Amino acid sequence: MDSYEVVVIGAGAAGLLAAAVAAERGRRTLLLEKNRRPGVKILMSGGTRCNITHATDKWGIVRAYRDQGDFLHSALAALGPADLVKLIEDEGVPTKVEETGKVFPVSNRATDVLDALVRRLVRSGAEVALDSPATAIERDGERFLVHLSPHALGERNVSRSETPTVAAAKLILTTGGQSYPGSGTTGDGYGWAAALGHMIVPPRPALVPLTSDAAWVHSISGVTIPDVAVALHWPNASKPLDQRRGSLLFTHFGLSGPVILDISRTVTAAAEPRSLALACDFLPDTRADQLDGQIRESCSRDGKKQIAAIVAPELPRRLVEQLIQLAGLPLELKAAELSKKGRADLVAALKSVRIPITGTRGFAKAEVTAGGIALDEIDSRTMQSKLVPSLYLAGEILDLDGPIGGYNFQAAFSTGYLAGMSV
């Protein structure tokens, strides 16, 4: 049986850095990965461009995580956004900041980011075993035994008649959550952590598109609105559960785009998501009374035109036509014929139309997982378990999920880095 000072399971963002840093510190380290290549989810991220982090400081990351943010203080002190950018650029991959604050490689190639991380890993001297899925973990005195599938460890596994096992003085779990299960993140780590005594906050999809059965929504599939304020409501409730602002995309199944992905974690946390509705303000910088005045003036000036031609010209015509009909007005209505009530109904449609939500597209289309290993069971100063000595946990396996924009990668890289520094 091979023995290591450190075994890391999962070669994603957190695992790649955890293994490299541990090995750089002189620890005999093995990184196990179930896939035939590392960093599969990195390659998929950001539309294959890899949104590495966000152009902010550690406090910006902490605030973005809201009530989970305090957990990240030590991890971000070890590796903040600027440190992460430098780490990637020091490996020969220049980065850029886009208008949204998202940080990408200049090449727009996620493969360049992965190659940078792998170069550092190789240079660290850590051993890597690809196509080597772990099947079980057990505590054996003060060490861990990691049991692997029969074909694991490649040529090092001379005998295929027995299940190969490696021993670890310290174990780092960076197996990810359940989002994009096709990339290998199928929740394996939850079962192992639970068997060792950890509580698992029920995993649910986050940063995931929403579904709706509203026919008018489907009819304008492909329409994007760059700036929409959305508010999530229970039926007949005036106070929203959550509010966000950003770009929205209408699709054949419902809604997507950054603002939808950000509010989706609140949808998946609800006991009855099918009872929710999303109120959309398509002109968030214009007050309702101002909009009413603008429409009144346009109707007075261009009374012979159809209202679809003069109302909210900054919005796509296809959307405006749907909102006119939702306001109970005929498309052929001339501007001069628009009544005061009709104008009020049209303003309401533009500023607060409600779209029924039927659910989400699930883990298969979710960018991250909400839920996971409870944060109060982890020492945030080291990423070591408070329950199991020498067990460390980092990345998406934790009950950590941030908004869209590189925040989740930053948390994964930072917690992985800190774990590597702590073993």
What does this 3D model show about the protein?
It is elongated and about 85 Å long. It has helices spanning about 15-25, 40-50, 60-65, 75-80, 80-90, 110-125, 190-195, 215-220, 260-270, 290-300, 315-325, 340-350, 405-420; strands at about 1-10, 30, 55, 95, 100-105, 125-130, 135-140, 145-150, 165-175, 200-205, 210, 225-235, 240-250, 255, 275-280, 355, 360, 370-375, 380, 385, 390-395. The longest helix has 16 residues, at about 405-420. The model has no long low-confidence stretch (mean pLDDT about 95). The chain has two domains: about 1-205 and about 370-420, FAD/NAD(P)-binding domain (3-Layer(bba) Sandwich), CATH 3.50.50; about 210-360, no CATH class. Strand 4 (about 95) and strand 5 form a beta hairpin. It is of the alpha+beta class and about 425 residues long.
